[in-house]
Design a protein that fits this description.
11 helices, alpha/beta, two-stranded antiparallel ribbon, Rossmann fold, six-stranded mixed β-sheet
Amino acid sequence: MKSLHLPETIFGKEQNISLKNLNVLIGKNGSGKTMVCNHAAISMQGNEKNVYQYPPNFRKVMIDQVIHYRKPLHLKEDGSNLFCVAANMDLKTSEIGYFLNLGLFNKFCHDYLRLELIFKVIENQVVQLRINNYDKNLSESISNGQYKFMCLASILLSKTKNDVVFIENPETGLHPDLLGGIADLLFHAAKTKQIFITTHSDILLSAIGQNLDTANIIICERKDYQIIANCLSPEYIKDFMEHDGCLGQLWTSGQIGGNVF
């Protein structure tokens, strides 16, 4: 989808915003970021695309019309259903090797989580995921932050193409040093998928700002009864970054809007 129409009946003002493969929505709480994502999901009905959301209960209000909401699944002890848990898909074939580029998944986990993963393979299907030097099962061996990073990686590194992925605040619960890894995952996924994320992290925004040819920055603001969504000009961002610093600084300085004060 190359553009998104925002109707006056929902947003208080008729608007059309341009889209790229990676769309990053920023703004204060209550600015309408999630409403824009929900409307994008609804607009994609009938496009025969796989639509994923993370976390699984990402504002079920309108997105229910596209994604069947169900109680989040639980990770099996052997980790074999990691992708299904992340995507909240109760599939008959739950082996992660069926969905993931295991080489890249292992590399990201090694580079950013410092985890050495062992995949047990039977008849070309991964049936178990363990961490090297740990006797415990995967679900007992990782922290909540590591688990979230692995869930995001499993969705963004899936083998399927032409997917649409919605992620709310990917930075929540993660150490700031991991946000560069999240940006790298987003850029990799944007080669074959269309992605929408909301974020309140200037660190993640700065990392994403390193590739404005792929990323589209959308500022959301609520004015009276209107939700206004504006796409930042890449030329404006690049000019600022050449003289004053990173994209996160541009946002937190209050020069582009989307701030509380």
